[in-house]
Amino acid sequence: MDEKKLSNSPIMVFFLASLILVLGVPRGLADSKVSSAILKRDQDAVSTYIVHVEKPMGRVFSEEEDLDSWYQSYLPVSLSSSGQQPTIVHSYRNVITGFAARLTAEQAEALKSMKGVVYTKRERILSLHTTHSPAFLGLYQQLSLWKEANLGKGVIIGVLDSGVDPNHPSFSDEGMPPPPVTWKGKCEFRATECNNKLIGARNFVNSGGKASAVPPPRDEEGHGTHTSSTAAGNFVPGANALGMASGMASGMAPLAHLAIYKVCSEEGCGESDILAAMDAAIADGVDVLSLSLGGGSVPFFDDSIAIGAFAAMEKGIFVSCSAGNDGPLNSTLSNEAPWILTVGASSIDRTIKATARLGNAGTYDGESLFQPKDFPSRLVPLVYAGANGNSSSALCAEGSLRNSNVRGKVVLCERGGGIARIAKGQEVKDAGGAAMILMNDELNAYSTLVDAHVLPATHVSYAAGLKIKGYINSTSTPTATIAFKGTIIGDPSAPAVTSFSSRGPSIESPGILKPDIIGPGVSILAAWPFPIENDTKTTVTFNIISGTSMSCPHLSGVAALLKSAHPDWSPAAIKSAIMTTANVFNLAKKPIINENLLPADIFTIGAGHVNPAKASDPGLIYDVSPVEYIAYLCGLGYSDKEIAFVTQKNVSCSSVRSIPEAQLNYPSFSIILGSSPQNYTRTVTNVGSTGSYTYKVDAPDGVDVTVSPSMLKFSGTGQSATYTVAFSRSSSGSTGKPFSQGSVTWVSDRYVVRSPIAVIFK
């Protein structure tokens, strides 16, 4: 039989078909077809791209429509073979020269070659990262900074988040003056839902910047309502969550105005929407921007938050951002740019205690928001969820306890596995368990959280969990119960850094110490848009949640108070005042501790814990001008083009005197030290009383530090003085540690101005 006849025979056709069914398509053919299909799919898929274009020479756009038309000219109709028409979703005026558009990969690639297009990038999707906290920070009505700053009156805080519940009493405008005449923003709620407190509200999620295209920025997640009320919620008496943490709720700046920019949904927070909201906020006239969101470390020229924040800073707008919730590992920060205040999270001195009591008389304190009054004090059987050897059962994963005998028992579950803490309790409840003891994993150690559990529960430390496991294994009849002790104030170990708070050193710029500061971010009570209990009739709804998302608006509110008290201070001056007056000791006058109950290091706390009252009168400040940031960016080794993405100005580093990172006039020092000595200067400006300052050095281990001159004298406010700090390896040799820490402090008869020092050895 010849080849031609064989190839056409039914037997051969069947054989080839059978071979394909059994073995799959021959490898080369399969790879080629699959790759082509994937490539075609990817080319046809539509994503949002941020497009930077050259500024038009000598052209000024008087109307928004003119700018839109010019940007539209970059999108030819015949750009794609897929049939997908490109559409602009945001036109930027302030943060960058450019726009965001819905494009296919093919269209985006074609755009790159167009004249005038400087840079095109696909947007990243970023993630969202109080009755007692004002008092914990020393803020009281008619006293201290609240009195001096008039509760933040006249200052506008812009919050970029998941929206807001405009009808919550935290956003009442009782006692509020009208917004400043400089306010130019708009409200996309009904006219009756905006007021002198909530002066602006816009939705940028898939909006294309057009209010008619999307619903108003109502908060469907809860996150934005919580952060907004933390920054500037009005006074609400009788606030509580499930009856706990009762008291008068308020934000840090209760009489500041709020402008809400919705940029996040359940899918996340699109970079193009964030950039559009920052663009609008600058035009609207906000004084402070608060962003409890972020992504991982990227170069500043590729970081939309850093780019938007630079434009805001140039307009005198203070920008506060969360550090991220990826601790306790090092170098896990978001929002690292030096013109941003990067905020880590710490505890307050309030706990909502729930104590596990065992049959051997052992007791282990934990926390829970749900505090049932009728839970029996008698001991009941105690079981470890992972006793069957199944790791998913140990984690109390969904469905893992279905066939376990936990009915009527207290169940010990392990934290982790990507399973929500409350969801673990739901699994125990569904399986008939009477209560849950949730033990930490080793990484989270002693950092426990207050949650609105669905059954009687307590969240205990890893050490406590190991002891409870040991007790279970020591007897054939282990028993336990939980004693609910309610709200307790006065924990002397507060503030303590929580395990989730992201840590430095900064990846993108290790010569700048980050985070800058820590503030309350653990178990914070603030406004919530819907009930967390079964009572659907209540209109005063609050919740307790945790995250650097909660610490960020605390600092945003503090910045608003400082802006109100000192309207002439620059964003860098406000940051300096916050950092140089920070506390490094807890209420017990001992060093602030971390999740392991050990002293927290400098890459965990930055300058320390915010002290609002002292920040209002810091004595000296370290100021930084926009021009100095350009010299710093040149020192990072960025190209002129990359720096222009950040600054929106043509920059030539060859004609700019670039500076090393650590030379930026920052209120802290972060030094990468080898065998060669290094010298850095700082310039301080007097904003306090006249007088002289002498220095005090707490030298990092393994480092010799000298300061000159030995004294700074000021005869008037506004005077500046420069000093030099020299760093060198000490003759005692290596410490055997990767880094060391210390401080340099300028002391007068009235002020203590402290700058932390981090030294990374190489």
From TrEMBL:
The keyword Protease applies. One of its GO terms (cellular component) is extracellular region. SUPFAM superfamilies: PA domain, Subtilisin-like. The active site is at 161 (charge relay system), 223 (charge relay system), 549 (charge relay system). Residues 663-759 form the Subtilisin-like protease fibronectin type-III domain. Pfam families: fn3_6, Inhibitor_I9, PA, Peptidase_S8. Keywords: Glycoprotein, Hydrolase, Protease, Secreted, Serine protease, Signal. GO terms for biological process: proteolysis. Residues 1-30 form the signal peptide. Residues 48-129 form the Inhibitor I9 domain. It is found in: Secreted. Residues 152-582 form the Peptidase S8/S53 domain. InterPro entries: PA_dom_sf, PA_domain, Peptidase_S8/S53_dom, Peptidase_S8/S53_dom_sf, Peptidase_S8_Asp-AS, Peptidase_S8_subtilisin-rel, Peptidases_S8_3, S8pro/Inhibitor_I9. Residues 381-468 form the PA domain. Residues 208-232 are annotated as: Disordered. GO terms for molecular function: serine-type endopeptidase activity. It comes from the Eukaryota. Its main location: secreted. Belongs to the peptidase S8 family. PANTHER family: PROPROTEIN CONVERTASE SUBTILISIN/KEXIN (PTHR10795). This is Subtilisin-like protease SBT1.7. It comes from Punica granatum.
